[in-house]
Amino acid sequence: MSRQKIFYHTTPIYYVNDVPHVGHAYTTIAADAITRARRLRGHTAFFLTGTDEHGQNIERTAREKGVPPQEYCDGITARFKSLWARLGVEYDDFIRTTDQRHAHGVERFWELLARARTPDGRDAVYRDHYTGWYCPRCEGFKDDGELTQPGNLCIVHELPCEWTEEENYFFRLSAYEDWIRREIENDRIRIEPAGRRNEVLSVIRQGLKDFSVSRARVKWGIKVPGDPEHVLYVWVDALSNYITALGFADRGERYRSFWEGASERLHLMGKEIIRFHCLYWPAMLKAAGLPAPTRIFAHGWLTRGGKKLSKTTGNVIDADQLITAYGADAVRYFFLREGSFGQDWDYTDDAFVGRFDADLANDLGNLVSRALTMAIRYCDGRSPARPVPMPKTSGIEEELQNDASRAALVAEIYGRYEALDFSGALIRIWNLIGRLNQRIVARAPWEMAKDPARREELHDFLYRLIEGIRVVTVLFSPVMPNAACKIMGMLGVTEETARSLDWGLVDPGVSFGPVEPLFPRIRSKKHDSAQKATRNVESKGEKGGGEKMPDDQKSNTVATDSVDDRIDIAEFARIDLRVARIIRAERISGANRLLKLEVDLGNETRQIVAGIAEAYEPEQLAGRKIALVANLKPARLRGIESNGMLLAASVDGRPVLCTFDADVPVGMPIK
Ligand code: ME8
Predict the structure, then answer these.
(1) What is the CATH number of domain 542-657?
(2) In whole angstroms, what is the distance from residue 254 CA to residue 231 CA?
(3) Rounded to two decimals, what is the model's pTM?
(4) Measured from the CB, is residue 13 less than 6 Å from ligand 1?
(5) 485 catalytic residue (yes or no)
(6) Site to substitute for ligand 1 among 9, 10, 16, 24, most atoms within 8 A of C-beta
(7) Domains of the chain: which residue ranges?
């Protein structure tokens, strides 16, 4: 166990100009998961979220609805809190910019800014006249480069900006340019992913301009101390939440531990607001003599139909509906598993259902129900005796029982969580789940059960299987806390054991069960076979390959421990496998993982869609020979027809093409 550290994790505080949607849930689930992961690792972590309730936008929306602004904010904030409760998000505090404690903290912060001197000895805050374009949705001033013409539209919201002229207070950001650049270059303020860091550095290279920190026309906000004609610019108000929530106003214990004393002060957010967080916020903190954030992670946007989810454009996915239909854990799993956290990715209902059935119902659900049903049946409903010697076989259960190899696996998975590579962590965990499933098929405990002389072997295997499931469950618990709790309940383990990654903690003799369904399949098996080709291509094939678990619809609730998965040669012969040559490959817009390939089969040319874009550049592929399933029914992926499926292995989720070790003619059957 590494030395205990203190972490502070925040989401943006969300505008209350409309109800929450899945985009907000995305950041919040991620913050919840990293907080849980760090606590499992033995660290102390504080997780803050909240709502941004001031500003022109909110004032206008409340007016349009005919309610006083505070009443309007109360209603929407309650919706955010209820969504977080439904999603199993456990924040440590929820800050609202209309809280008294926030106003007090902001006033203290302003007092520090108002008397601050820049590194070159000038006032950090000064009064000046402002003229320029202002986007009321961003609540931000826009340079020419941030406008689209005609119409001076904001590039984020695609809505007209307003020409603004007023006397304002300004913050002398320009004087902090060198300091910010150095902090970012030296990773004292770590901006991730790397592309965003470069983007911010390039903005700095173009020169930082001072910005206005007060608004004379806006009424719904915190008044500038000593000048009630002005309210504080909403971003100064909003950014301060990260310290006011900790009790900055009187520099309380929480503020000292989790801001000043934290090993990491991590702000999570979508990529559109990094400038505020990477430039304005650190510079203001520096001026006030306070520590800056140490890490800023800007994740990508969720899109649907290639367009950003957004309240303004009405392109939203209702998180409540998804939870009602599939449960909170499935929603959490899908959003953290499906896309790469730093990148944009497109949501489809089909992908959601496909992943639910494949990963949750089949892989995880079947593993748990099979293992427990067998343990109940073959060990009289109780955990078998703890086997002391290492197993002679070399399977995943040996890797998990062995302290050194388990520690390496755990460190790797935690490393991915810490890097906010949620899909990477989950791919690795599902690889373990796939291997546990394969071991059930390979060791065939139902055969052992027929022979009384193999009783000990059977009990040893089942004990290790159950322990393996427990360890894997601890590992995914930051993402799916409810499912983890349910599984631990079925295993009858103590709360402490449910959080531990040590081996051999399931107590012999403890009663198991009853076995409850975890993730009942959404689609029928019939529908699934029709879709299988589609899924195989889309899902990157990261499930570890090898034998598949029986695919019985009821297998999530009923044990299928005597099913023989093997096929006969006649069944195999129905698959028309052939050597094909890739003629050309190209990316598919809006589908990060897919490539469209044109392949030569000797007597015909085919178009196929393959889920290999994350591992292969299109230019690398022309001329390569591949193995192709040639008699697969056509499927449409992202609207593009696919006439066949290439074969690939999967190494930690990265597809690796099957190739030939000698030259083979195109079109030749593979047997
Ligand atoms: O910007 N994809 O609030 P906001 C991914 N109040 N994430 C998304 C998303 C999408 N399509 N849509 C929203 C504000 N988000 C300010 C923040 S912080 C001091 C003030 C998430 O309600 C993402 O985290 O517009 C994004 O940064 C945030 O919601 C914007 O929320």
Answers:
(1) 2.40.50.140
(2) 28
(3) 0.79
(4) yes
(5) no
(6) 24
(7) 6-316, 344-499, 542-657
